[in-house]
From TrEMBL:
Regions that span the bilayer: none
One Pfam family recorded for the sequence: FAD_binding_3
Assigned keywords, A-Z: Monooxygenase, Oxidoreductase
Limits of the FAD-binding domain: 3-327
Name under which the protein is recorded: FAD-binding monooxygenase
GO molecular function, one term: FAD binding
């Protein structure tokens, strides 16, 4: 969409036919919604009757943060659209911008000439294999990326995956709203309203529970909610009615991949994947997609060498995502919080101002120094009345 809007000739190929569904957290943080607003697409998400969520109930092993980040540029809610809604809006926006979209197209290989990627090879539906040539090929094809595999994009900063997800959609839970709750036994559940009057309910458990969980998904799904919040477990049993099949996801390890090379680049989960615990996949894909498009435009327009522009994209992607990556992989373990996070989150839970600030940090609209800079930490501990001997300032402690 971005490249087509700047006048470049773009062909988009996708294995799916739209509207299509996809395993997803659905959640779009405020930082992602600000991008949609800037692109003129947020109103379409709202027009699809995606419920606005203006309160978050966040709990981690007895620490509760209930509130919402302050509005930014008029974005005063978060939205969790079905992928059948979101993806079609994005694809149609790319079409309107002038991109050619080819659906039901399976990529089988990349075309290489003189050590440089110069296109892709694949087939539309059951048709004959064909080649499409391009100045640059972008793999936005998920963590099983064909493009990444074919170009040999190396992995780095890999951290083992902690858990697995099961989720589905329910009626009868409209009053619940947005919840994100950790229990004491390496279990989590989340709820968020989505389109068509449905509430998505998801569970995450650490991998040691996987074999047992698979033996009776329905019973074990209920048991996770019972374990984390007995009160909500009882309501779920009485009120919730499952509307679709369960969707399982045993996700891969957390990783970065080298995101560029001669004639190619990677974006989204193809180049950078982390635990779905914090729901940052969609938002990061927006931020990094825009960043990559800007650098590709610079290269195509002759403003700078393409290799230099793509190298900067890779560098900025890594720098800008490092904090979320560390936070996500730490909390995604579902174990006891490290002392620093436990001390600061406990202090924040005692103040609505600090609670909202932390939820803004989670949502990508509050910079981390507003909470974790030394002077900010001092104010936080002072406001919460934390004794001097219980204050922790070093995240490595």
């Amino acid at each position: 969409m971005h490249l087509a809007r700047q006048g470049h000739r773009v062909v988009v190929v996708d294995r799916a036919s739209f509207p299509s569904d996809s395993v997803s957290t659905h959640y779009i943080h405020q930082a992602g919604l600000l991008r949609l607003k800037e692109w003129g697409l947020l109103d379409e998400i709202i027009a699809a009757k995606t419920p606005p969520l203006r309160k978050m109930h966040y709990g981690y092993r007895g620490i509760e943060l209930n509130g919402f980040a302050d509005p930014v540029d008029g974005v005063d809610a978060v939205y969790c659209p079905r992928r059948t809604v979101l993806d079609e809006i994005l694809v149609n926006a790319a079409r309107r911008a002038g991109a050619e979209v080819v659906e039901n197209f399976t990529v089988t290989d990349v075309v290489v000439s003189d050590g440089r990627v110069t296109g892709i090879r694949g087939r539309e539906g059951d048709g004959p294999e064909r080649e499409l040539r391009a100045t640059i090929v972008v793999g936005a094809d998920g963590f099983h990326s064909t493009v990444a595999k074919k170009v040999g994009a190396e992995l780095y900063n890999v951290r083992p995956a902690a858990g697995f997800i099961y989720y589905s959609y329910y009626t009868g839970l409209e009053s619940w709203g947005l919840h994100h709750k950790n229990g004491m036994n390496e279990k989590w559940f989340g709820t968020w309203p989505t389109n068509d009057g449905l509430t998505m309910v998801a569970t995450i458990c650490t991998k040691r529970y996987l074999k047992e969980f698979r033996q009776d998904v329905e019973t074990n799904f209920q048991a996770v909610i019972d374990d984390v919040s007995p009160e909500m477990g009882e309501q779920f049993r009485d009120m919730g009615r499952r509307a679709e099949d369960f969707r399982p996801m045993r996700y891969p390890d957390n990783y970065y991949r080298r995101a560029y090379g001669p004639g190619w680049a990677l974006v989204g989960d193809a180049g950078y994947h982390k635990d779905p615990y914090t729901g940052w996949g969609i938002t990061d894909s927006f931020l990094h997609g825009e960043l990559l498009a800007e650098r590709i435009h610079q290269g195509l327009a002759g403003e700078r060498p393409m290799e230099e522009a793509l190298a900067e994209y890779n560098k900025l992607r890594d720098e800008e995502s490092a904090g979320v990556y560390d936070f996500t992989t730490t909390l995604g373990e579902l174990t006891e919080l490290p002392p620093f996070f436990k001390a600061t989150m406990s202090a924040m839970s005692k103040s609505q101002e600090w609670t909202n600030k932390m939820l803004g940090l989670i949502g990508g609209v509050v910079p981390d120094y507003e909470i974790y800079a030394p002077d900010a930490l001092e104010r936080l501990y002072d406001d919460a009345g934390v004794p001097q001997d219980e204050r922790i300032y070093d995240p490595a402690a």
